[in-house]
Amino acid sequence: MARILILAPLEPKHDVYAYLKACLIAEGCSPVLVDLSLEAETPELNADIRRDEVLRLAGWDHPYVERMSRTDLLTALVSGGQVIVQRELSAGRIGGIIAVGGGSATSVATDIMRCLPFGFPKVMVSSVASGDTRPYVGIKDIVMFNAVTDVHGLNKISRRVMANAAAAVCSMAKVTLADDYQPKGIIGLSIFSVTMPCASRARTLLEEAGYEVIGFFAGGMGGRAMESLLREGLIDGVFDLTTTELADELVGGIMGAGPDRLEAAGERGIPQVVAPGALDMVNFGAFNTIPVQFEGRRFYRHHPHATLMRTSPEENARLGEWIARKLNQARGPAVFLWPERGFSRLSIEGQPFYNPLADRAFFEALSAHLSPKVPILRVDTDINDHRFAEIAVDTLLEMMEEQHGRGVIPRP
């Protein structure tokens, strides 16, 4: 019988959790309820893990709790909750996690859920699930159910939503994944629509060579996810084809992936082939959402909710220097692949972002600041030409085989 951890933070009344426990039992699972109440211990919850234990694991003893601010108490509940879920997971005592709540409860519960590994079932029933869920989900695979109604009590709609959520987490907890495939290694590949032909060809070649490919959409969260998996040791090599998130981070677009993008592979010392995919653009939403300071720039309306702005020579020069500094810190092999005829579908000759001056500004800055230990391979094609993908794959595989030999790369 799968044991499902229920996080019980803040808003919902005890009858909500009693109903959720009953739903889990009806699905053949065993509920384990953790009391994360903000105001005080809640005896009506019949918690399996009491609030006092959560706070103790966070380093707070009872006499100090009454004097804690709301912010400090929330932080302590998250910290103690993370200790509990990691303890239960390490001991093999839980198969899934679920929570119900409004804004504050969703923040507490999902902060705890995000410390769990990818693939572990995580379900959040939330009254804020119909809005921007990025602060809650982050880069993790949290499933969010829109509560539709208020979460303080039970009604015809909330009963059905919670029953569905309970069925979902129980079903996920019971899944047995048959995975006999043993690749030589796992390759991270950054992808965008304007670099997709290269990405598709590279994936095919890597898979034919016996490697598994994990693609990441370079839209902000994708880059963050790739960096996170790299730091967790789950990726063995990188073809960072699409580094466009750096342009958004530098210029102020909506798809930045944080200032530490393009650093994790170097920190771990794993082989990386890097290209300037889609560095010819900065990403914005609908045209009427573009900040006024960019008035007069060259734009391309990709679709009604996505507008692309051509990077300038000055911006590209700054990007070249920034990328060089990042690659200079790499502890392992790195190669920069330069597509001389365009960074994306939009910057080849005849397309709206064609601007050789801007491309050259990037290359000159990169060349001026890049360490001699990081070679630049110039390829007389655009980035989506099959020859570019083939050279990139050959280069990456050569580095990986030199570093690891020709056998399967051991998992950390």
- DSSP helix count? 14
Kindly provide the radius of gyration, computed on alpha-carbon positions and rounded to a whole number of angstroms: 25 Å
Ends: how far apart? 30 Å
Give me the side-by-side strand order of the main sheet: 7-6-8-9-13-14
Overall morphology: elongated
Low-confidence stretches: none
* Fraction of residues in β-strands: 15-25%
Class by SSE composition:
alpha/beta
Which sequence of SSEs, written as H and E, runs from N to C? EHEHHHEHEHEHEHEHEHHEEEEHEHEH
The beta-strand count equals 14
Helix content: 25-40%
Mean pLDDT: 92
The main β sheet shows up as:
6 strands, parallel
Overview in brief:
With 412 residues, the protein is an alpha/beta fold. The protein has 14 helices and 14 strands.
3D architecture notes:
44% of the residues are buried. Strand 3, helix 5 and strand 4 form a beta-alpha-beta unit. Helices cover 40% and strands 17% of the residues. Strands 7-6-8-9-13-14 form a 6-stranded parallel β-sheet, sandwiched between helices. By secondary structure, it is of the alpha/beta class. The protein has 14 helices and 14 strands. It is elongated and about 70 Å long. The model has no long low-confidence stretch (mean pLDDT 92).
Task: Give the tags.
412 residues, alpha/beta, elongated, five-stranded parallel sheet, six-stranded parallel sheet
